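Thread: "does anyone have the structure for this chain?"

Original post by V.I.:
We have the sequence but no experimental structure in hand. Need at least a predicted one for the grant figures.
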Amino acid sequence: MDRTQGRTEQDEQSAGGSTPPAPLPAKQAAPSAPARVVRLTAGGFTLTVNPVDGSEIEPLRPGTERGRPAKRDAAARAARDAAARPPALPGPALPARPLLERGEEQERLVRLLGRGRSVRLTGPSGSGRSALLDAVAAQCAGIAPDGVVRLSGHGHQQPAELLQALYATVYEAPQERPERDELLARVREIGAVVLLDDLEMGGSALDELLRATPECAYLLATTPDTRAPSDDSHIEEVFLGGLGKADCLELLEAGVGRPLTDEETAWAGDLRFASEGLPLRFVQAAALLRQRDELNHSDADDEEEEPGVFEERPRDAAHVPLPTLAEGAAPAELLASRVSESARAALRIACALGGELPHHAHLPALVGDTHADTAVAELLACGLLTPVGTRYRLAAGVARQLEEAAYGDTAAEEARTAARHYAWWTGHASVTPERVAAEADAVLAALAGADVVAAVLLARTAAPAFAASLHWEAWERVLRSGAEAARKAGEVAEQAYFHHELGVLALCEGRLDRARAELETSIGLRGALADKRGTVAGRRALALVVDQEAAGVAASPPLRLEAPALAAGSEAVTAVTPAAQAAQAGAVGTAAAAGAKKTPAAASTAVTRPIPSTPAAAAALPAASPAAGRVGPVARVAPVVPVSSEAVTRMTPVVPVTQHSETPTTLSEVFEDAFPLTPKQPPAAAPKPAAAPAPAPGRRRLVLLAAAGALTVVALGTVVSLAMDSSDEAPPAQGPAVSSTPTVSVPTTAPGTSGNDPAPEDPESAPPTESTAPGASVAPSPGRTPGRTPSRRPSSTPTKTPPSSTVSTPPPTTGTSPSPSESAAPSPTVTTDPVTATATSPVTTP
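Reply from O.Q.:
Generated one for you, tokens below.
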């Protein structure tokens, strides 16, 4: 034992000690520090929960890592199980209710759990599932090495919090919340019988819970409307129904404490038929009969005594009949009307909090009665309350019945009162975070129903307590509700605090994108308020987010796109061959010309043919046949007979192969290799083997080739015409115009003329029928630019013609008048003249 333990520094100096005093324990080292400042270990971080300035997070320092946590022994598990039960109520203990007609289900459950099988106990609300779980837990105490663990699944839709609760129950690890990988590694080693009451999740979420704990046997108590587990979970199903008629009468007599009359027996039979034998309905029916006996003074001792002056009951009370069948099926309103005023006030508070009843220690302050704590036992005896974990809430169907009886009219006022009370209580220094966590559901319900001012105050004081108690699901819900309430109330400083806490929480859980967004919002708000201390804390946390993101990128570098390796032998690849070569090789035959007629601008056609890699493979290739199938505008792969067993069909990669010798380190280098900004020149193709000589073309092929040449001349003439019209030079005065739609004609040689002689004169023709007077100009046609009025005789001066085209005039024809030829696609910039020149190209006829 340390000799300085329990002694102050002054006592040590007075004793003449020369050695410095030993450091005090952590709880006594800083007595002036706030009592609610808690330091936690969350994965690889150290979290300091500060309710004044906000939580601070930093990396876990070397040498401060905690060792492997130890499991609790049997005594510690028993103490933990006792703490998980509902609290003891003031006043005399309530009599235990018998468990009737459940022996067969109880034996089957114990047998399946002893084999390590997981069981799903399904039954409607009020069927006695919790009582059956208590009986099974007593028989399964020594089955598993880690004993029996009781958890509550009420309000949990994801398995993360249930796994954290299981870890905290089995392992002795205070103020430590492991990260996900470590948590899964620890719970995998747990071997226990887990009794999970009020389960609300199923499907994939339940499968995740079962896979994380393969050494645990689960007894899942749930209602029929809960989502069923998947088919691969292999969970046994046990359905819990209602009680028989004899068991219902026995339960009713045990609740009343006397034998039933014939009238009450008949009434109980009708009630069983209406309620399908649910035990909860007969607990409530027994309470109705007890209240009726008190009102009718059925006790003999009570009849002999004269009622006092201060007693509430009258001297001559009227006979109270049996409740009707409707009142027995929905007895909440009738039962509430016969309880004390404090109990009715507690029911109003429970209706305002969504069915959650606060701890009985809070009722005197909430109700305003010093004896209001006894109301919980009174309501529990009437069957209006049911235990859920370490608390009580309204039984199934009671909240709806009380709201119909106007018990929810004052819900807003009751919620505001509860919120202000919890704001004071959660912020008190004497209240431990574990006590606040036990009231989590009531606190969250008060926060949801309070006004914005009370909600901000409650969230500000309850959030640090939930964080310190490791109840982080409630912590996140409080922070989000507080941030929304602060935004509505205009409290910028409180809003910045809530966003900072949300960012720290997301960082601890590994959600880096959410952490960055929340911290940047908090830093912006605190910067607007000139809060230097809060801004520095936010930037520290944001720096941790950046470090975590950088570590994640280093752990998973970007993928590198590479081409598949080429195999030896002949390979069939898809190559692009010009249409002319394809026609000469005879691979596509007449399909090339047909495709050229449909799309004149097409310059190449995709042809699939085998490319040999060796001379032997080239010699073995068959000659191309002109009888290949017709190919349309879309390239089709022609069937190729494999040359040898080594021929492999492989497609060439679309993404180019990177040319860098070093591995890229950034995403920009990867995208530069895969998608270069400047297209690279493709490597020179290997010399292709000479194709087999094609047969002599027929007459139809020559006609089609002539048509293709004519269309090519048409396109060339159109381009030349557009180039001449768009030039900056003025059009020639007497030059012939080039038509955009040339007429193909066979050139004839006029006798007696040479290339240097002037152009022949145009023949005179009779004027049109609707011609105007001599000297009048002809109106231009719509859509055309009016040109210069042509003269009867062309000028003898030769005109300049563009060097790219040959313009010739037609031979003189008698009886025809020159008229401008119209193109198929007129352009608004084309100028037409009366004299039309026809561009011709020599066509070789067979």
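V.I.: this helps a lot. Confidence is low (pLDDT under 50) at residues 1-34, 300-305, 570-658, 727-846.
O.Q.: and The longest strand covers residues 571-578.
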